[in-house]
Amino acid sequence: MPTLRISPRGFLLFCRISLATIVLNVATGAAVRLSDSGLGCPDWPTCAKQQVTPPLSLHPIIEFGNRMVVFALVVTCTVTYVGSFLRRPARRDLRWLSGGLMLGILGESVLGAVVVYTKLNAYVVMIHFMVGIALLSVSVVLCLRARHAAGRGTLAVTRRVLRWTRAYLVLLVVAITAGTATTGAGPHAGGKGSKRVQIGLADMSRIHAETVLVTGIVLLVVLWLLWKSDAPARIQESGRILLGAMVIQGVIGYTQYFTHLPAVLVGIHVVGATLVWSTALWFHHGLSDHLPEEVDTSDLGPAGSSGVVAAPPSRPVREPA
């Protein structure tokens, strides 16, 4: 019987599909909350007691639609995890990251049930979202690392730039957390009677805005250090892309606040947070130069590096050096 093997290109495709599904999960989760559909299905994992599928009503359909996306997420991440063991050349780091996806899905599933049974408690919803951000982080790093050879690579900037970039990432996490709390203090609870964050919306919005401002200033320092040290053009360009993403996100944030938080803008802002965070991880990863992975296409069978192939099981598996 032949043994399935997956090329680096095929495995990268699985990783990207998983990442897209994670972003879709965040978007549909925001739609559930902003449409007040959080309790459209009052039970879990079924919609209502013995009823698996939702009734033909708007709120149950929206809520159950998000659960179907979660099911798709479980499938895609499981395929990615299995693919990490079939990938040739074998990579231990990719297996660990793929396993992290599975743990993240488990955590999200458990928290999803807790959200339902606590009647959309704002603090539980906040934790649910931040676990989703952690899951997104693992997926982004997995996609980035699957594109090149194993190892951290060679640092292409000064250590000072690296330290400031790490400080920026920490502040960005704080800003995203503050933004999550701001949503928890706002009017979009996901359903009637849900417990909100016990901080005034104006106060929480001010905290979030000031945190974002400090984060943006640190990013400007990073860009200045890159320019001063004559860093590679590609890194400076990626830094400007990140700055542009933050500016757009900030404009959306202020617009939604001064227009009294319309649901559509809030949803765009939530998805925007995932895109800014993903761009920040991409920028940080790009501070190092990485070698392309050497692939012996003869070990992958006649399909070369195009994707999944069948090869005799007697052929030895070569671990990377």
Structural summary, described in words:
The chain is mainly alpha-helical and 321 residues long. It folds into 2 domains: 1-151; 152-290. 65% of the residues lie in helices and 4% in strands. The radius of gyration is 22 Å and the shape is flat. It starts with a strand and ends in a 10-residue tail after the last strand.
Write down how many β-strands occur, each being a DSSP E stretch of 2 or more residues.
4
**Helix/strand class:** mainly alpha
How far is the N terminus from the C terminus?
A: 29 Å
Mean pLDDT: 85
Report the helical percentage.
Answer: 55-70%
Describe the protein's topology:
Elements: E1 3-6, H1 8-34, H2 58-86, H3 92-117, H4 122-145, E2 154-155, H5 159-185, H6 201-228, H7 233-258, H8 263-285, E3 288-289, E4 308-311
Helix pairs in contact: 1-2, 1-4, 1-8, 2-3, 3-4, 4-5, 4-8, 5-6, 5-8, 6-7, 7-8
